[in-house]
Write a structure and sequence with these properties.
single chain, 217 residues, mainly alpha, two-stranded antiparallel sheet, 11 helices, elongated
Length: 217
């Protein structure tokens, strides 16, 4: 049973995809540690002559003053875990199906952004929300990765493709034949998202993540 589970295509894609994001976790964690030295300024003697404690105090003061810059690498690595996983798992699953892995990964990431983030505008700037682009959206990223690749595979099985002569560059054919799968993905996944919003006032991640967190606790 263990061998069969280990060879299951989706579980292998999950394992390999998560391994692809491991460098992001390690490097991001280093900067998180750098921003949080093991000392509490409220409980130490600020006038101490202990060299090690003085070093930690100076480190903490420097980290507090420069936290925005220190945490930038963390925010763009570990802090984007959900977004990166949406790409990596879809990439690995599509590769196991011998489909275009990079295109499937990009599609999955785009659909994930569409569902898990939204544009926030004010008079000065435009930004996107990032709550579910982090590890909070990891479960949604895994589900959407599988769904997007399976939808693309279904469209591919239907044989709805434009065949080009050999003289046409392969990237042109890839571009044209990616339009329909991406459109179908957006219609299905984003359509479900809009239906949920209209029925219960919550998007897919807002509806699923609390239930998943409660179950794991």
């Amino acid at each position: 049973l263990g061998a069969k589970l280990g060879n299951q295509r989706h579980l292998q894609a999950l394992s390999n995809g998560m391994m692809m994001t491991l460098p992001l976790l390690v490097i991001g964690s280093i900067f998180m540690i750098l921003n949080n030295p093991p000392i509490n300024l409220e409980t130490v003697d600020m006038n101490t002559t202990n060299l090690f404690i003085r070093f930690l105090i100076n480190w903490k003061e420097w980290a507090v003053a420069n936290s925005e810059w220190i945490l930038a690498p963390y925010n763009m690595t570990f802090g984007m875990l959900g977004l990166m996983t949406a790409f990596s798992v879809a990439y690995c699953l599509a590769k196991s199906y011998k489909m275009n892995a990079a295109v499937n990964g990009i599609m999955s990431m785009s659909v994930f952004l569409l569902v898990c983030s939204k544009v926030v505008q004010d008079a000065a700037i435009s930004a996107i929300t990032s709550q579910y682009l982090t590890s909070d959206g990891l479960f949604i990223a895994l589900v959407l990765s599988f769904v997007c690749v399976e939808i693309n595979r279904m469209v591919d099985k239907l044989g709805i493709k434009v065949k080009f002569p050999a003289s046409v560059p392969s990237m042109v054919a890839t571009f044209v034949n990616s339009l329909l799968p991406l459109f179908v993905n957006i219609v299905i996944v984003y359509g479900i998202n809009l239906i949920l919003i209209s029925l219960i006032g919550k998007s897919i991640p807002e509806a699923i993540t609390p239930v998943f967190n409660t179950t794991t606790k």
